């Protein structure tokens, strides 16, 4: 009896080793290019989950070999491009597979699923079942790199269609990872429009986190409904007086650069007043506040008087040395380009005590010098081309 049992056990072991009697799931992956669902253990999650699109999974696994950094995979990686440009995932065709990726224990797989949904996803925005699965993952996500990408996906969910607005707003206000909140706020207003205007404005005004406030305020750049453009312009102007330099600088930039409806024209003069006051006080720390002058000067609807004043305020930023070096360097760009004395000023600023201003002045002077040399050489090049062109014309007339 013992001998029989031993032989039976040995036979079973031999069959198992040869793979005989095993299910199809043990026979390896589907052929390349197959659109059939991947076969996996019922308990498998993430990239190996049952029901995933096999062809998409194959592309994704190749992408996992791309260089990984602070902000995720290298976007220039050929395998990354191949995945995101594939017809297999356009128009939300692979949304269910990528939502499964979000449930993977590997942060790189979760990031990849987030990036694909953010750039190519569609169905998840209105599909409550998919959206709920996304929220479950997002609510517990602790990795900053993944959260930065995943927040934008959550922001794309339609509140009215899924009935998940309350949970999503709760994440925007209270999620423990800052990157989740900022990327969520950056997209949720654009995706849901008018209904979230006051909600996002409240966060921009009252949140304790300055970075989150800045993200909420910037969301109105793309998220402002056409009927409330004037209100957003007034809001940005008010934020120029904010105690947080990053918020005040970004507000000035948005107010000057906003293009819709011809821009925030009613706010341009009071904006110049505010920036000039701070420039002369020497309290400008944000580069964006100097950039505001640069973009206001370029606004098609700005008057000559406003452009002239923007240039004068830029000089005030530059000449008041208690303004930050980076803000002064940004102001120098406008002065060098538009001020009649710009060239002389570039020479003088190369002796400035601030290292950044000194370096920026030298770079701009070198750039201006190269441009002048190229312009001077252009007529000579044209003269050299002229005889050859004349000869070609002569030869053409001689042909029968």
Question: What does this entry show, briefly?
Answer:
Residues 364-400 are annotated as: Disordered. With 400 residues, the chain is an all-alpha fold. The chain is built from 21 helices and 2 strands.
Largest sheet: 2 strands, antiparallel
**Cα distance, first to last residue?**
109 Å
Q: Which second-level CATH architecture of the domain at 225-368 applies?
A: Alpha Horseshoe
Class inferred from helices and paired strands? mainly alpha
List key phrases describing it.
400 residues; mainly alpha; Leucine-rich Repeat Variant; two-stranded antiparallel sheet; 21 helices; 2 strands; 67% helix; disordered N terminus; HEAT repeat domain-containing protein; signal
């Amino acid at each position: 009896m013992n001998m029989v049992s031993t032989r039976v056990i040995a036979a079973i072991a031999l069959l198992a080793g040869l793979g005989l009697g095993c299910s199809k799931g043990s026979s390896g992956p589907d052929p390349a290019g197959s659109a059939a669902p991947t076969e996996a253990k019922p308990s498998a999650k993430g990239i190996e989950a049952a029901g995933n699109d096999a062809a998409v999974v194959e592309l994704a696994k190749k992408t996992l070999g791309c260089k990984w950094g602070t902000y995720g995979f290298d976007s220039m990686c050929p395998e990354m491009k191949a995945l995101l440009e594939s017809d297999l995932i356009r128009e939300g065709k692979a949304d269910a597979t990528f939502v499964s990726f979000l449930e993977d224990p590997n942060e790189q797989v979760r990031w990849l699923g987030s990036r694909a949904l953010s750039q190519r996803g569609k169905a998840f925005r209105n599909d409550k079942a998919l959206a709920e699965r996304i929220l479950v993952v997002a609510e517990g996500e602790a990795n900053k790199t993944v959260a930065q990408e995943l927040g934008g996906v959550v922001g794309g969910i339609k509140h009215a269609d899924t009935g998940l607005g309350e949970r999503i707003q709760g994440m925007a206000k209270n999620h423990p990872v800052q990157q989740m909140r900022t990327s969520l706020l950056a997209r949720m207003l654009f995706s849901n429009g008018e209904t979230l205007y006051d909600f996002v404005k409240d966060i921009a005004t009252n949140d304790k986190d300055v970075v989150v406030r800045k993200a909420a305020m910037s969301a109105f750049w793309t998220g402002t409904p056409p009927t409330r453009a004037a209100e957003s312009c007034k809001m940005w102007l008010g934020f120029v007086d904010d105690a947080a330099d990053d918020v005040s600088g970004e507000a000035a930039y948005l107010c000057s650069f906003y293009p819709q409806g011809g821009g925030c024209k009613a706010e341009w003069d009071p904006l110049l007043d505010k920036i000039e006051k701070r420039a002369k006080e020497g309290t400008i720390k944000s580069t964006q506040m100097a950039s505001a002058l640069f973009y206001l000067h370029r606004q098609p609807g700005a008057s000559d008087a406003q452009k002239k004043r923007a240039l004068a305020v830029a000089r005030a930023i530059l000449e008041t040395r208690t303004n930050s070096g980076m803000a002064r360097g940004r102001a120098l760009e406008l002065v060098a380009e538009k001020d009649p004395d710009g060239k002389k000023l570039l020479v003088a600023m190369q002796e400035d005590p601030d290292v950044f201003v000194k370096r920026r002045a030298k770079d701009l002077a070198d750039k201006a010098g190269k441009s002048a040399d190229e312009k001077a050489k252009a007529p000579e090049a044209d003269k050299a081309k002229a005889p050859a062109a004349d000869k070609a014309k002569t030869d053409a007339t001689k042909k029968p």
